[in-house]
Specification:
The protein is an alpha+beta fold. Helices cover 20% and strands 25% of the residues. Bound molecules: 2-oxoglutaric acid and fe (ii) ion.
């Protein structure tokens, strides 16, 4: 029996009693709707082969290989592996792999002209302690913006790159660094829900277009301070077999990055774009 329950007051929904690999279109529809309504969808107790995870991910959109080529699965470039090859051959810990996603609250793919619609993870190994993923609602962030700030940023674009102002691009191959910035509206209307959210990523933004440098820095600081609303958060404590998908158009996330490094924390990940990639931004 399928059970759907909300796990956070403004973000997060958990589904149990369903095998995602067996779903037909009618069975998938309530999951997709629950995801749109709650930004983060957790499905418990799955047992998936690589191809099954990819097939389930494709129900949400177009699965796109991630620009970090070194962490792609050798047989299936659409699958990124998180937590693999954490230790270098000399035994030292590779922080870029261990702390991937843990430096900042962020949204995935803001450096692309068409950012990722969604990111999905499947948990294969989970440490005894730590290693949670934190989520926060971009709708709650928009709701918290003072009128003055909403008016200032209405219709305004931000410029984003992979490494942002600090050039944190250790996971990219040298030939993939220094890509030109892309522009996205800071206040974004979600194509499917029609709700407004704050589209922002403090680690990837370079500047606010049309603002003087000092004002741009002030705006970035102000948005960074308000993007995470206490009542807009959900913290996911992983279990092996969890499949979690989040909507990068209207939420932020961050790995806690605090687990014992000698223990395994391994996920498969897919990066999903919108169906109409050539069309308007979702
Ligand atoms: O490992 C995690 O908890 C999330 C990492 C992350 O930011 C991502 O997969 O996009
Ligand atoms: Fe991420």
């Amino acid at each position: 029996m399928i059970q759907i329950r909300q796990v956070g007051s403004r973000i997060g929904v958990e589904v149990s009693g369903v095998a995602v690999r067996d779903l037909d279109d009618a069975g998938f529809a309530p999951l997709y709707q629950a995801w749109l309504d709650h930004n983060v969808l957790v499905v418990k107790d799955q047992d998936l082969a690589l191809g099954e995870f990819l097939a389930y991910s494709r129900r949400f959109g177009v699965v796109t290989p991630h620009p970090s080529k070194s962490t792609r699965h050798p047989d299936m470039p659409e699958i990124t592996m998180l937590g693999i090859n954490k230790f270098r051959t000399d035994g030292s810990l590779d922080q870029a792999i261990y702390r991937r996603g843990a430096e900042n609250w962020h949204t995935d793919g803001a450096y692309d002209a068409v950012p990722f619609k969604a990111t999905q993870l499947y948990a294969l190994a989970i440490p005894d302690s730590g290693g949670d993923t934190l989520f926060a609602s971009g709708y709650a962030a928009y709701d918290a913006m003072p009128t003055r700030l909403r008016q200032r940023l209405d219709g305004v674009l931000g410029a984003f790159t992979y490494g942002g102002r600090t050039k944190a691009d250790a996971l990219l191959n040298p030939e993939d660094r220094d890509r030109p910035p892309v522009l996205h509206p800071i206040i974004r209307t979600h194509r499917e829900t029609r709700r407004k959210s704050l589209y922002f990523d403090p680690g990837k933004i370079l500047y606010i277009q049309g603002a003087e440098a000092a004002e741009s820095d002030d705006l970035i600081e102000e948005l960074t301070a308000l993007m995470i609303q206490p009542d807009g958060q959900y913290r996911h404590k992983w279990q092996v077999g969890d499949v979690v998908i989040w909507d990068n158009r209207c939420s932020y996330h961050k790995a806690a990055g605090d687990y014992p490094p000698e223990q395994d924390r391994i996920h498969w990940r897919t990066s999903i774009k919108d169906w109409d990639e050539a069309g308007p931004r979702a």
